[in-house]
Structure formats: structure tokens, C-alpha cells
Amino acid sequence: MSLSYVHPTSDSPWGTYLSQIDRVLPYLGPLARWAETLKRPKRSLIVDIPIELDNGSIAHFEGYRVQHSLTRGPGKGGVRYHPDVTLEEVMALSAWMSIKNAAVNLPFGGAKGGIRVDPKQLSLKELEKMTRRYTSEIGLIIGPQQDIPAPDVNTNGQIMAWMMDTYSMNTGATATGVVTGKPLHLGGSLGRVKATGRGVFVTGREAARRIGLDIGGAKVAVQGFGNVGASAAELFAQGGALVVAAQDHSGTVFNGHGLDTASLQAHVKATGGVAGFAGGEAMAGEDFWDVDCQILIPAALENQITAARASRLKAKLVLEGANGPTGSAADDILAERDVLVVPDVICNAGGVTVSYFEWVQDFSSFFWTEDEINARLDKIMVGALAHIWDVADRHRISLRTATFAVACERILTARQERGLYP
Ligand code: NAD
After folding, report:
1. Domain contains 31
2. How many other C-beta atoms lie within 10 A of the C-beta of residue 59?
3. What would the pLDDT profile of 357-368 be if each residue is shown by its tens digit?
4. Which of the residues 66, 85, 148, 248 has the least number of beta carbons within 10 Å of its own beta carbon?
5. pLDDT-derived band of residue 24, with 50, 70 and 90 as boundaries?
6. Exposure of 140 by Cβ count < 10 A (0-12 exposed, 13-18 middle, 19+ buried)?
7. CB-ligand 1 contact for 225 (6 Å cutoff)
8. pLDDT value for 330
């Protein structure tokens, strides 16, 4: 029987995730007996977050923390602040974290959190109050050995610092390991800020090599120029690619000779978005999907590559920096059109991999150099992708289904070995 508290559609995030699980069932053998476990989050917490605004009025926000699976270790996954956040979206994001963590073989389950809020409408003080109250409310289920949040859309190192401080105040001891993505002098890790973008680049570089696509001179289009999109764009530019288009919530900019990614980052920092960037021309939002490019990096939100857009894309390689950017129907169209998709559940796993390094460093109170971190990240991502590629070749399935096959086998084997309690 399906869950009573969500009503997924074929295109909604949880609906997309369920159909991804259905596609992998034929490859799970006897472990398929346990597959229903993957269709039910272990625990979903909905919290009310009341705060007093600067003008003296009281505002309430709805917050969530979902622990999809704790079978292989503590929950791990980011916290998103966005006006469209829903329980269903957080469930899907937490489930994709279970798959991602297992796909790169990190000793974590999957979790995710979020608050339904437009943080741009809040002052810094209000943002801090909301973050602290949210942390206190979900403090029932998070902790360095229970569930470890991290940054996601519209959250950053400062917000992680407030979360760490609030949790530490409530428990009576400084607990740096309760969140990752913290500032460096609070137990953060070198390389964490750019880790997700770096992972997108590493998996993209490997995939491009395997399909004979030269990154030098390749044209790249990036949707989302935040933490993930900007870091990935910078590394592709350093690798000799031309980042010809960038789109974010504020607009789209295009330059056929390549945007200067460093100047564009400075512009975004100063103005809040890519719109108005002098080093490129403005473009209508929908035209982004027709841009002449070999590599497309969706690095914003879910469901951006719709079936209609999938039929038009020029790219040969899609690198899913964002979580869930491609709907199931669009996925099939891309496969028919021979467009290779490196799926989110491996492509953007660089962030959680360095979060894992941060958590390990916090426990040992021994910190690594940036070179060590980047080298270890590279090794894990290259190894994980190679294994997934072999599975895809062996079964003649997409990289997405192969990633799910590798991950689900690990999660369900652990589930079977643990058995059912009581
Ligand atoms: P961010 O807040 O730093 O950036 C988000 C970007 O998306 C911004 O440039 C924003 O303008 C853009 N955007 C928002 N709405 C848009 C719209 N309607 N159209 C076009 N662009 C829009 O967030 P981030 O951390 O870079 O996360 C981006 C994606 O990557 C999300 O799907 C997130 O879940 C995923 N992700 C992030 C991490 C991480 O470590 N931060 C790790 C794995 C996956």
C-alpha cells in the first residue's frame, strides 16, 4: 500500500524517485524482497518554527527533517531554505541521499531537511532566529551519531555555524560533528565549499573521456550559478572548456566565446544574480535550453529538464549537479537521443564525500591539507563512477539505473544482514 500522507505524481520528486526504484527492481535478485523499505522513509518530522520578526510581529514557518534510511549509518543530507519546500520534496531529497551515500560507499544513511521560507525576505537576525529554532526542534533526532545536516540551496557555512552552536548549547558540549559545511575555524574542512562542483567536474571529465569528448574547447551551459554551478563552471573553464551560458533565478547570460567565470562569480556576489553581467548578453530564459553546447550542467532545482526541453537540448553530455533535475519521461527521451546523463546520485556526490571527510576530521581532531582532500575526493569519485560504468555496461542499462543498482544492493544487503527489529 502506498503512503497515506503524500500524493506523488509522475513528475513530482517523490514520484520520480519511486519510478527510479521500480526500474532497478529487476537487477536486485532476491534482495528485491526488501525493496519496499526504500519506498518508505524511516522517519519524517514536521516542525513549527515561530519567530518574532524585527517589526515585532510573529511569523510561523514550516520545517522538516526526513531520515529516509539509517540502515548503513547515521543520516546525512543538507538543509534547504526555499518557498517551494514541501514534505514530499524533502522525502525525495532524503531518499536520493541514501542512494548517493551508498553509491560512493560512505558509511551513512540518507536524510534531508528544509524550511518553507524565502530567506531573502528575512534580515540576518531573523534568519539566525529561524535557524536556531529549527535546529532546536529537529534536535530530537539529529546528532553526530544520529543525523548530520549540511548546506543545500540557500544555506551556507554561517547557517551551519548557528546550527552547530544551537545544538552544542542544548546538549552542553561543543559538538562540531553535528553538521558539516562549517566555517574552517569551527571544524570545517578545506575543499568543502567547492567539493560538489569539483565532483561534477571529476565525473564529467571521466564520462567525457569515455565517450571521446574533449573538454578542451567544449561548450558548457550551466543552470544555477550558486555553490555547485559556479564551482563546476570554474573548473571546466580551467580545464579549457568555454562556459557559454549561465542561468539563475535572476536571468540568463550568454557569450559564444566563453563567459569569464571569475568575473561572473564576482558579479553574482555583488548583485545577487547573473542578470546584468557585462561580459555576456542577456538571453530569454527558455532559450537557454536551445544553446549550442556539448555539456549541460543543471545545478539549480528539480524537474528543470522536462520532456519538451529534453527533445531540444543540443548537449551530448548532461551532468546533474542539482538533485532531481530530470523527470522520468525526459530521462527516456535523452536515452533515445543518445545523450549521456551522469545522474545526480553520483555526479553531485562530491559534496557529501568531503562532508564525510569533515566529519572524520572533527572526530579525530586532525585536519588534512586541501591537496590531500582533493586527491582523496578524486580517487573516490573516479572509482565509484568506474564501478557504476561497468554495471551499466554489463546489464546494458543507464548510468542512473546502474547507480541505483549498486546503491540499492548495498543498502538492502545491510538491511537483510541487520534483520527486522524486534
Ligand atoms: P545555491 O543556493 O548556492 O544555488 C542555487 C542556484 O540556483 C542559484 O544560482 C539560484 O539563483 C539558482 N536558481 C534558483 N531558482 C532557479 C530557477 N527557477 N531557475 C534557474 N536558476 C535558479 O544552491 P547549491 O548548493 O548550489 O545547490 C544547487 C543544487 O545542487 C540543488 O539541487 C542542491 O540540492 C544540489 N546539491 C548541492 C550540494 C551542495 O553541497 N551545496 C550537494 C549536492 C547537491
Report:
1. no
2. 16
3. 999 999 999 999
4. 248
5. very high
6. exposed
7. yes
8. 95
